[in-house]
Amino acid sequence: MEPITLEKELSELMSAHEIPFQISNEWIVPLGKLPAIRAIWYPREQNGCLEVEVLLEDRRTVTESFAGIGSGRSAINDALHNFCVNSFHVLLASLWGQTDPDQVLIEHWHIDGKEYTAFIGNIGTRGSIETNATIPDGFFPVIAQVIKNESLNTNPSWFRCFFAMYLASKPLKH
């Protein structure tokens, strides 16, 4: 199956958040300058993968990937929802200056003798219908401390933490 560019969907998200933009090739260019963003859907039979790329001013690219469960349009919508819940509002705040305080917390962190602005998104969970995903106690302070112990040499820097736990309700068949 061929990849699909989701230019229309990203355009609708930007419009819904009142971010003016231009389109250049497959890239959405908010405010008429870099950073730019694009989304590509890689379909499979019963799911797919949404790759969201952000082209920064220094030409580095940040790529985020989101699973979409289901088939066809329902899988695309599932992946887009996952993107919106986990990264979209952080990108809006950190790159294009639109902060929703219900979605993004802004803190000033001192790392390696320099002050950085940290744009902190909500912690997203995902699981099957039968499970209720829970966040381990102390999860965020541990992640924040690991980041604060880094030697950052690029600005902006992007961190995403993924925690997974498999809970088997039935024994695995060999």
Q: What tags apply to this protein structure?
A:
174 residues; alpha+beta; four-stranded antiparallel β-sheet; 3 helices; 8 strands; 26% helix; 30% strand; DUF6348
What does this protein structure show overall?
- The protein is an alpha+beta fold and 174 residues long.
- It has one domain.
- It contains three helices and eight strands, in the order βαβββββαββα.
- The strands form three sheets. It has a four-stranded antiparallel β-sheet with strand order 1-4-5-6. Strands 2-3 form a two-stranded antiparallel ribbon. It has a two-stranded antiparallel sheet with strand order 7-8.
- The longest helix has 25 residues.
In terms of DSSP E residues, the strand content is: 25-35%
Count of runs of 4 or more consecutive helical residues: 3
Oligomer: single chain
Describe the sheet with the most strands. Answer: 4 strands, antiparallel
Distance between the termini: 31 Å
Class from helix and strand fractions: alpha+beta
Uncertain ranges: none
Q: Overall mean pLDDT score? A: 88
Radius of gyration: 18 Å
Number of strands: 8
**How do the helices and strands follow one another from N- to C-terminus?**
EHEEEEEHEEH
For the record, the count of structural domains works out to 1
Query: Residue share in helices?
Result: 25-40%
InterPro entries: DUF6348
